[in-house]
Here is the input.
Amino acid sequence: MMQSRLTKAKKGEVVSKLPVGWIKGPDGKYDYDPATRDTIKTVIDTFWQTRTLRGTVKALKKAGIQIPNRKGERIHLRKPTCGRVMRILTNPSYTGVYVFGETQCQPEGAVLASGHSKRNNIPEENWIKIFNNHPAYMTEEEQQEIMAILRKNNFHRRDRPGRGPALMQGLLRCAVCGANLSVCYPQKGYMYSCRKSERLAERPCIVFTSNDLDRFILRELFKVLETPPV
Here is the structure.
């Protein structure tokens, strides 16, 4: 069945539903959905005003605007979240492009709890795209600019400190590969090691045990507290 849909998509047929924002007319052509059009435009316009994902969500919440979400054949309104706003800003459909084949089933892969096979992402150059398939909410150039802004605003999450006496757990990175250093507690004391190397079943780039590290950090910290920098 999947192969049949893939063949039809390659011939220029729409074989899956579009996201929220359009309705299909009796003639088979798509038009803006009047129930969601203004909201989607407001989400995009708000991002151009704030130029940040969090700022957009806060502004939408303040204005009492909810995000339309399709569940089955019905449209439900949900509170703004970064994920919901992101899906509107970065989905190619909102530029008028129909996309099919972004993922595929993993051959002989594990079956998820939902009963479906796990799907793998497909490189964009292998997607099937039908341009000018339906009315757009933004141009492709505008979406590319939005994605560039999002990349620029993005930051690398720092793991929060976990449990245990090691003072610097979750705060150190490997000087060789840049991965986080994990902490384990063999008997007494503790040991730092490169987490990336552990995942790859290789010898860690860095591994060390030292209670002196915490004492050194505390000594330097108290120096700053006693004489704060100008």
User: Anything to note?
Assistant: The chain is about 35% helix and 15% strand. The CA atoms of residues 102 and 125 lie 10 Å apart.
